[in-house]
Amino acid sequence: MSMRRKNAIILVVDILIIWTAVVSAYLFRFNGDIPSGYAAQMVMFALVSTMTCSISFAYFRMYKRMWQYASIGEIISLIQAVLAGMIISYGLTYLIDGDRVPLSITTRTVETMLLFMGGSRFLWRLIRVNRSVKNEMKTNILVAGAGDCGALIAKEIMTNRSFSQSKLVGFIDDDPHKRRMQVMGYPVLGNRNDIAAIVKHHQIHDIVIAMPSSRRADISDLINICILSGAKVKIIPAIDDIITGRLAIQTLRNVEVEDLLGREPVKIDMNGIMDYVTDKVVLVTGAGGSIGSELSRQIATFQPKRLLLLGHGENSIYTIEMELRSKFPQVSLETIIADIQDRSRIDEVFRQLRPQVVFHAAAHKHVPLMERNPSEAVKNNVFGTKNVADAADKHQAERFVMISSDKAVNPTSIMGATKRIAEMYIQSINVASRTQFVAVRFGNVLGSRGSVIPRFKEQIAAGGPVTVTHPEMVRYFMTIPEAVQLVIQAGAFAQGGEIFILDMGKPVRILDLAKDLIRMSGLEPDVDIPIRFSGLREGEKLYEELLTEAEATTATQHERIFIGKPQLIDRSELDLKLRQFEKVFGAEPAAVKAAIEQLVPFYVQVHVEFRPEHVEQHERRAI
């Protein structure tokens, strides 16, 4: 039914209520026998009341309200509209008729109108709620958080047609004063420690976390408890949605792995970033990759004079170009298809376009693939970086920020070793350059291409098994947006020669991550989806580090960014070693690895043997 038709029906009902209220008031006043003189007054009072109350209701927007969501505000508006209309009606009737309407009749008319009009509107809301409740129930829902947000979610569940096949069972809340209280007519059943029992007893299918103002660490703990209960978990993303009035059923989303990290949002110094990015020509290499594309998105928000997107793959560069042109039409974009291994081409790009700030994200990063193709890792990660850094130095860019990796610390892989050599080179070139060269080192990013998360999701969707290399393997994780925000922020602190280390929080055990992903899919690890251990791959180690023994950190102005102690590296000696290094291109992998060992003091090839007892230990812990 259209809103116009609904409002027409409500208007007709209101007019009938007005006449019913006036006539019944006169009948009660005169015990059912209305004198002839008052009968004419009754008709006049009813006509005047119909006119004035209709105008009053329009003024108070009573026909623009959605009564299925009626609350105290709607009740107050109804009272105001009725009182205003009846006061005016009382005065107009006296002016027209010459006799005052008895005060008892006016009072009873107001009471009846409020009772019938309020009742009819809330009856509509009750019908809407009952209509959804009477449907066959398929999903029992538990709301975590019995506060304002929880009440809003409860109202949505009660009235929104999207939940017509759902039933709200109750709430859980850690506030002991709310225990056994009711919210929107539904009980607070316990706290987070009772979730498992509540889910089992009430056969809860979905848990909605409605605690947008809570600390991320608390939410992470709660999510883990909910996942372990076997229920599916949804979450309200941010308190801003409530403050700005944007909270709707569409804001509910499934819990993602990022929510399990439990870290507070990154706070960045907007002014510091704008000082070195805004109105500057900014180049992003590897702009089509996971980190490079997110760098491009975030840099575009700071209004650079020109944003240069450089990449080797035309499809990925085209994709990010189309996205940025749509979202940031005011930003001047230049797309460049180039290979950073092509020294003359890179020099040409710098000579023609004169970038002032360079974010170097182009790299080969897949550890096992680089173990099998070490020459390509060296050409891209070492000499590709050297080409871009040399061009930045030659054409006097202001700042050069290189994306590095925790795998560069005490590297056991070709990828990590080549990243370490790249760090060494930019630290050496910084000594005599006008350009400020820095590197930013961090761990794995969730959801990046080739990362473990998409692989696990594919395996779960295929019915398993989920393959984990080793039950004790741990990694640092960060979301792509927060990593990129910190990279850009670190660039603002650059003085030249630093290696910035990002606070990655607590390391995550890959086995736990796999189990969480399985449970988040509504399945049980080792029951619905088997987990298999495949053993460490080439170049991998059980844990990653963020600092070498020689690097001590100092704090920066940002609580999540630290500076590793700069290493003194002789530029001429490093250049000599790199020229010798070029001779091993195309040689056997063993020869390339031997050359790397000569160049990187901390590079050690290790192999962690995977034995059956590892699985037995894992299974005993699970039991």
What this model shows, in words?
It is a single chain. With 623 residues, the chain is an alpha/beta fold. Helix content is 49%, strand content 14%. The protein folds into three domains: 3-132, no CATH class; 135-256, 3-Layer(aba) Sandwich (Rossmann fold), CATH 3.40.50.720; 270-448 and 476-504 and 545-599, Rossmann fold (3-Layer(aba) Sandwich). It has 22 helices and 22 strands. The strands form five sheets. Strands 10-9-8-11-12-13-18-22-21 form a nine-stranded mixed β-sheet, with helices on both faces. A seven-stranded mixed β-sheet has the order 3-4-2-1-5-6-7, sandwiched between helices. Strands 14-17 form a two-stranded parallel sheet. Helix 2 (36-59) crosses helix 3. The radius of gyration is 34 Å and the shape is elongated.
Number of strands: 22
Biggest beta sheet summary: 9 strands, mixed
Into which percent range does the helicity of residues fall? Answer: 40-55%
Classification by helices and strands: alpha/beta
Low-confidence stretches: 132-137, 240-247, 618-623
CATH structural fold name of the largest domain:
Rossmann fold
- The share of residues in extended strands comes to 5-15%
Distance between the termini: 58 Å
The CATH level-2 architecture of the largest domain is identified as: 3-Layer(aba) Sandwich
Total tally of structural domains: 3
Strand order of the largest sheet: 10-9-8-11-12-13-18-22-21
State the CATH class of the largest domain.
Alpha Beta
User: What is the gyration radius calculated from CA atoms?
Assistant: 34 Å
Give the overall form: elongated
Counting DSSP H or I runs of 4 or more residues, the number of helices is 22
Mean pLDDT: 82
Can you identify the CATH superfamily of the largest domain? NAD(P)-binding Rossmann-like Domain
